[in-house]
Amino acid sequence: MLNGVIDLRSDTLTQPTEEMREAMARARVGDDGYGEDPTVQLLEAMAAEKVGKEAALFLPSGTMANLVAAMVHTRQGDGVILEAESHTYHYELGGLSAVAGLTPLLVRGTRGVMAPEAVEEALSTKGGLFPPVTLLCLESPHNRSGGNLLRIQELAAFRQLADQRRLALHLDGARVFNAALALRVEPTAIASFAASIMFCLSKALSAPVGSMLAGSLEFIQLARRLRHMLGGGMRQVGVVAAAGLVALEKMVDRLAEDHANAQLLEAELIKTRGVSVEPVAARTNMLNIDVSGLGLTTAQFMEALTRYNIKANGRPPTRVRFVTHRHITRQDVAAVIKAVRQIAAPLAT
Q1: What is the 3-state secondary structure (H, E, C) of the chain?
Q2: Does residue 53 sit within a domain?
Q3: Rounded to whole angstroms, how far apart are CA atoms 242 and 250?
Q4: How many distinct structural domains can be found in the chain?
């Protein structure tokens, strides 16, 4: 609970821990523009090791990291394959087109997961005057689909397709540590199928800001130049990177608590008449519910939640997303379950 409100809109709401604040206050810093910030160097090395890549780069946001990755992997005028409900397509202000000069080729998946056969079909129907497609972007967990995941065998199939079609493969793994926990694998196992991966420090890991982009040494060297082009070059940014170090060292293991809370929420809401929970490959800290069985729209249901001091994220016309995080307790989850049941009781058919 934050400020008397049970706020389940996103794990981006998490505030830095006291240990992070202390680390930020005493951080050793230098000019990162010259590559001389020792705390950033430590963070980038740790991030690369966590996902099994040669090198990593600290960026202000996941949006910038995804854009930089796309620019490294492509040339202006190329096409890029995206799942139709992907975060990059819906929430990153068209940077792929406006800045990178790329043409999105959208492939609709099932709850955010594309079928390799559908990607192959889309590629086969594009020729002639369509831009050459050179990049395949995947997202796991998938934001708009309530955290649905790509299983390891699905990632392997996409890696095979990318190799056959000579496509670079980038993974938007903003919550990759959640994915690894849910799939019971190491993050390196997920990242191994992608040439590059982005993950966020500022979501469930509770750092105040920042994302990491990881890949080969050559990839990161070019990514560093493009980060500067986009205005992401930073100076004594070790003050912020210090919180990222604490996030990677101390906050990954506690994600299990968020998953357990989301699983409890799912188990109880499934029992609530008029409310359906969208299934996923494995539950992380996110879930989508559909309230059409209550005869309510997304806006109407969210308005009803506010009377119980609960906030959620709308997925119109009839879906709502809940995200558990460090500031959501087991007692908060019980309060949400009770509120949803009270809202549903007079409406369920």
Answers
A1: CECCEEECCCHHHCCCCHHHHHHHHCCCCCCHHHCCCHHHHHHHHHHHHHHCCCEEEEECCHHHHHHHHHHHHCCCCCEEEEECCCHHHHHCCCHHHHCCCCEEEEECCECCECCHHHHHHHHHCCCCCCCCEEEEEEECCEHHHCCECCCHHHHHHHHHHHHHHCCEEEEECCCHHHHHHHHCCCHHHHHCCCCEEEEECCCCCCCCCCEEEEECHHHHHHHHHHHHHCCCCCCCCHHHHHHHHHHHHHCCCCHHHHHHHHHHHHHHHCCCCCCEECCCCCCCCEEEEECHHHCCCHHHHHHHHHCCCEECEEECCCEEEEECCCCCCHHHHHHHHHHHHHHHCCCCC
A2: yes
A3: 12
A4: 2
Q: In terms of residue numbers, what domain contains 270?
A: 6-12+254-344
How does residue 127 score in pLDDT terms, banded at 50, 70 and 90?
confident
pLDDT per residue as tens digits for the range 270-315: 999 999 999 999 999 999 999 999 999 999 999 999 999 999 999 9
Average pLDDT, the chain: 96
Instruction: For residue 308, give the nearest of 335, 288, 272, 345 by alpha carbon.
Output: 335
Of 18, 20, 42, 17, nearest to 29 (Cα)?
Answer: 42
Token code pair at residue 84: 């139709």
Dmax (CA) for the chain in angstroms is 64
Residue type, 103: T
Indicate whether this model's pTM tops 0.70. yes
335, two tokens: 């309060």
Any residues with CB less than 8 A from the CB of 307 and at least 6 apart, and which? none
For residues 127 and 150, membership in a common domain is answered with yes
Is 220 in the same domain as 147? yes
Residue 349 lies in a domain: no
- pLDDT higher than 80, residue 349: no
- Alpha carbon of 36 to those of 29, 33, 56, 247: distances in Å? 8, 7, 15, 22
Residue range 206-241, pLDDT digits in tens: 999 999 999 999 999 999 999 999 999 999 999 999
The CATH code of the domain that includes 69 is 3.40.640.10
